[in-house]
């Protein structure tokens, strides 16, 4: 029997997009999965929509207090029982072969962490930039300068590396988590195939630029324990690479 995949999803006020996300999971060719959805006390009808799907693999938990995406992901991770951990935010989308391709690659190549290409789309899931390419082996060193790993396109093996929780006091919680993981494994392997769609929403926290530089600086200063000079150096690298990653001039 194929190993169980635990899908980790935080959601908050996701009623507009959650049904597309759910359908993308139900359409997976790899069927041995459990889906740990943690609702962060949504104010819309997100929970009602999820409850319409009568599939025992979908395991919904509603928090009593809003605590942010990192806290919601941790709640799902703590309940997860699968060998493989996959992440899917409540407005993103997987192609049907996502789970099968990722797990097959990990098993065939003895990989601890893998990531794939993903489409960068608008709210209607239409591409607005070139696909982000998984074209480099990821290490702790090169991940410091730019975060190539996105939740929608990354999977790791808990049998090999254990579980890694998200820091709840960081607004760059996914980058911190990946860095912590790559402190204990040598590399993450690329699958140069587009298997997911990332929805670039205008009101997304990750798209608000006012405090993002400060938040990224704290990734290095507070969470990696780097000196001020070293933290500023990596923040500058991250900012330049981020411009190249998202600017339409270069895409």
From TrEMBL:
Entry keyword Ubl conjugation: no
Every Glycosyltransferase 2-like domain range: 6-123
One GO MF term: hexosyltransferase activity
Lineage top rank: taxon: Bacteria
Keyword terms, alphabetized: Transferase
Pfam family, one: Glycos_transf_2
UniProt-recorded name of the protein: Glycosyltransferase involved in cell wall bisynthesis
């Amino acid at each position: 029997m194929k190993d169980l995949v635990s899908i980790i999803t935080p959601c908050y006020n996701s009623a507009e997009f959650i049904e597309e996300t759910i359908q993308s999971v139900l359409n997976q060719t790899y069927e041995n999965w459990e889906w740990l959805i943690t609702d962060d006390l949504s104010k819309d009808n997100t929970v009602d929509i999820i409850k319409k799907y009568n599939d025992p693999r979908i395991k919904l938990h509603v928090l009593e207090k809003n605590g942010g995406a990192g806290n919601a992901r941790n709640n799902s991770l703590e309940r997860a029982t699968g060998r493989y951990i996959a992440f899917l935010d409540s407005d993103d989308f997987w192609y049907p072969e996502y789970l099968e391709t990722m797990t097959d690659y990990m098993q065939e190549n003895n990989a601890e962490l893998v990531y794939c290409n993903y489409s960068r789309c608008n709210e209607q899931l239409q591409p607005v930039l070139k696909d982000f390419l998984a074209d480099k082996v990821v290490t702790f060193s090169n991940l410091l300068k730019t975060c190539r790993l996105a939740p929608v396109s990354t999977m790791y093996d808990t049998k090999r590396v254990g579980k890694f929780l998200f820091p709840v006091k960081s607004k760059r919680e996914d980058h911190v988590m990946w860095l912590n993981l790559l402190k204990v494994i040598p590399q993450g392997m690329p699958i140069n195939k587009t298997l997911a769609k990332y929805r670039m929403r205008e009101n997304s926290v990750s798209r608000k630029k006012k405090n993002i530089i400060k938040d990224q600086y704290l990734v290095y200063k507070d969470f990696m324990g780097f000196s001020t000079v070293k933290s500023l150096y990596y923040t500058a690298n991250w900012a330049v690479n981020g411009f190249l990653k998202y600017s339409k001039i270069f895409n």
